[in-house]
Amino acid sequence: MKKKTIGFIFICLIGVIIFGFKETIDNNENEDSTIPSTIVFNVYDVDSKDMEVKKETELRIARKDYDIKESLESILNTISEEKFEGLKIDVKSIVSEGEKSIVNIDLRDIEDKSFKEDYFKGVERGGITESILIENVLQREFEGEWIDGVRFTYNGEKIKYNHVPLLEYVNYR
Question: Using CA atoms, how far apart are residues 26 and 120, in angstroms rounded to an integer?
């Protein structure tokens, strides 16, 4: 009788261990399902009163579709439409320079709209343009894999305009 009781207790103990372990595995699987299915990027604007960069909206990209170049293109398409009247902002390449990854972006005019005439002129307008472009590309608050710096060109040429001096250089996160 003692052997049957000990055997029964032993089997119950093994059952508790096995089912308890299975429940732990199930809980871990549920925790994995809480990983967001999208990656969130901020879209920044500049307050013209105090020239402060501020988060305006969010851009969500499906995690399964995440690609740095495609994510950059989505961000740039958004700011092109919302901030620059649809002017072209093209990702040309992402290159390695030393241990840093640098994205090369070309700003392009279209028909009767021009970065030079509409967005590079004037200290205030030029400063706003610089901040919007640089901050939206660098995504300083994003903690995932991203680029380290950005280099801009204008219609394929190096940028050299007084009111957008930061666009002349590589800007880093």
Answer: 57
